[in-house]
Design brief:
Chain lengths: 354, 354
């Protein structure tokens, strides 16, 4: 615990706790109002501390992208986890079975027969069956079956395997593509219904279009990660304001080699090279005219103006373009309270890519 | 220790030890032939294991970019470290002083009076003085004084502070800009000589132009990082061959949603978004016609061709665009020997950005 931000070493990542908690509450309220269950994605914070805050606000469970993330969350008391990734190979399937025995509810997704077959073999003799949602590609062009008919076929396959339960449908829709996603889901549910297959969960998600999230008469739950911290890309889209950005990189000016250039101690090993459509590497809080025009691994190159100079030793705060990859660069971050005091927080699932 | 690559979980990072050692030896031989001392930069491997291999091959010491990297290396038996970064603030200066007392030789760089003043205060009453090289900007546009005259002024300043020793000049030249760098250094050394200031070290570096590295009648040591693993960017420049790329990301195909798209379990939290001039995210070993066209955090999107399909569960090896940022994503990597056996290696300085 330190008194204020001048006592922490740079570069580092600082989360304003009040802002983060307000972001959690605001979207939970939205989901409550529109009748969506909320299942936050921990990929953004990777922290038991914030996962618990999301559960306390009313989340039904959490989403993880990788099995190692779920393992890192399992000691938090959180009992309901959805892993939104095709899990393949005997070692991971063994870990999945071990996870299953320690949770009240574990579900995963699958978008192909090979993955379902592997899951079936792993859970054939398990004490509890595994719930599987069929992942549908509704326009994002990543994983997912391409048609409602293909979703039906996988659902039927799952239903015929003794260790598995068909739990419903999951999609990560294209940004602003929630209408198409809903129609794909409606068409699929109709096909399922015609075969007498129950589809309890229809899971959608995504931060960019979060305030337009509704059930659309079909969606039951929403997965969302970035909303807890927010970032420059979401400000750009109009999803949030700068004041709602809870996560800042704190960096120090270490050199001013020329009147139009300053160098900070944060480079691509902190800010990452994620541009998300921008041509520079973050928003300098309170000094938007200063551009982070280049990064090497440990240096950030700032274009400064004669009107707005920096001084060596000065600290700046940066809202990253894409906060989810930036917070993942740190083993520990700092949580800032309303008095400006800071406490260190270990990032439980940092680097959990397995 | 595992027998072969099918037993390791993906995504992960694999280093072929024989290739890495050959890369170390080859450039050490080049430096020996041209009369340059070699001071490898550990930023690429961040590992005591490989730093020791570099020292055993004939390196005079190592380069670190950050003080926390140097701290991570200090238990390796390596006694000579150069930190090529302006160190600012009482906490870091205290750590620098502590480091100094545990090493036979510690040097840092500085490119401005404020940094020199801080270093002077920290080492005023230290048992041993600190050696400082003046960083010169010879065209790369990052840190560094802009003129030989400015370098002279800082050298004079250092010489007048009791806890500090002027150790020479350092530059990170622009790619293929070694001629300009040498001229800047010659001009500066002439100014220094006229004032009776000895300049024992002139340090240059950089992997892209490594095979053209010579003393140019002025350079005494060379700093280089990427050469140990090499990467796609260096193949593109003609610096190395694919066979000389020691570091591969191993990933698994988890989904083939359409005939022209496959998804792997490595995204931007593994491969990073570093493009280095490419339009895609790495080179698929043995299958160069397959392009990694998109990354989300944990998914890589591959464009596949009808002629060269992949199958679900298949593993691919990827030479990253920029290996230094990719190896930094893993707490542990795998070292592959000539029989294909693999041993896990902890990355001692991963994430050491302070």
């Amino acid at each position: 615990m330190v008194d204020n931000v001048t006592s922490v070493n740079t570069p580092t990542f600082i989360v304003n706790e009040a802002v983060a908690l307000r972001n959690i509450t605001a979207f939970q309220s939205h989901c409550n109002e529109v009748g969506l269950a909320l299942r936050p994605h921990i990929k953004t914070h990777k922290s038991i501390h914030f996962a618990k805050a999301q559960m306390a606000a009313g989340a039904i469970g959490i989403t993880c992208q990788k099995i190692s993330e779920a393992e890192a969350m399992i000691n938090s008391g959180i009992n309901d986890i959805l892993i939104t990734f095709n899990i393949i190979g005997p070692e991971k399937l063994g870990r999945l079975r071990a996870l299953s025995s320690r949770l009240a509810a574990l579900s995963v997704v699958a978008d192909n027969a090979e993955v379902i077959q592997g899951l079936g073999q792993a859970f054939e003799a398990a004490p509890l069956p595994l719930t599987i949602l069929v992942e549908c590609d509704t326009g994002a062009g990543r994983c997912g079956v391409q048609t409602p008919k293909a979703a039906l076929e996988l659902a039927e396959k799952i239903s015929h395997i003794s260790g598995l339960i068909f739990g419903g449908l999951m999609t990560y829709p294209a940004a602003n593509g929630s209408k198409d996603a809903a129609q794909f889901m409606r068409d699929t549910k109709q096909l399922l219904g015609a075969k007498g297959i129950v589809c309890p969960v229809v899971s959608s998600g995504g931060s960019p279009d979060m305030w337009n999230a509704t059930t659309a008469g079909i969606i039951t739950e929403y997965r969302i990660g970035t909303y807890i911290y927010n970032d420059r890309s979401l400000v750009q889209r109009g999803t949030c304001t700068w004041g709602e950005c809870a996560g800042h990189v704190l960096a120090t000016v270490v050199s001013i080699p020329t009147p139009d250039r300053a160098i900070i101690d944060a480079g691509s090993k902190v800010l990452t090279s994620d541009l998300l459509g921008f041509s520079d590497y973050g928003h300098v809080v309170g000094k938007p005219e200063i551009k982070i025009v280049g990064l090497s691994e440990e240096h950030g190159v700032l274009a400064v103006t004669p009107e707005r100079q920096l001084v060596i030793g000065e600290r700046i705060r940066i809202v990253p373009n894409h906060v989810c990859v930036v917070s993942n660069m740190f083993d520990d971050i700092w949580i800032e309270d309303e008095n400006g005091s800071l406490a260190e927080l270990q990032i439980d699932a940092r680097g959990c890519v397995i």
